[in-house]
Amino acid sequence: MKDGVKETIDDKGRLVHLRKSPIGTIIETYYIGRDCEGPIKHEDGKEYIDVDGQRRYWGGIIDPLPDDQRIRLLNEFTVFIIKPDGMKMEIGKAVSHLIKRSGGNVVAEHDFVYNDVMIRKMYPHFFAKEWEQDLFDYLKSGVSRCFLVRGKHPHRNMFLLRNAIRHLFGCNKDPRVKSLVHCAQRQSDAIKQALLFFSLEELLTLVGLKKSKQ
Description:
Layout lengths: L4 E5 L5 E6 L5 E7 L4 E3 L1 E3 L2 E6 L2 E5 L18 E6 L1 H5 L3 H10 L2 E9 L3 H7 L3 E2 L1 H11 L4 E8 L2 H16 L11 E3 L3 H8 L5 H8 L7
Antiparallel strand pairs: 1-2, 2-3, 3-4, 5-6, 6-7, 7-10, 8-11, 8-12, 9-11
């Protein structure tokens, strides 16, 4: 602990800084996320953060990774998803081709429709109310397609491909949640997201385990 501040994971799985008084009482819980950061405040049993004068309320669900040692041995892979607007534009074949052109190897694909719990696990964020409603309406509006992608540097290469696809096919920025495609940018995110669509045993079989060094 430094200057009365302790970094920890709270009971909802979020990275936070706890600021404590000299006698150990928690004075402030400061959230640190990729979506935003700031002190967590409370209103009528709900948690929120002020971001530039806008209240964003916690709406995420963060599940811990399965307690299975094999998780750490999974080959590097990522999750690449065509969202409903991309599916309606029928870009599936083009995306599959571009994944291969970018050095990716599709080991599985799965069509699905988001439900509320899946969205909250995919996007464990603090949401402005209007943005949250836009996101839910959009993601539940039609079929999406999930690809499991292996290959060299899959997170970096598929992130670059994500941006290229948005540029190539045009990205509807109004509302800003509509963005054609998504990809997981870290192995831990890829695992959690893949487990929304595949069982652990299926994932282990599809992605494979790293070969032990002799």
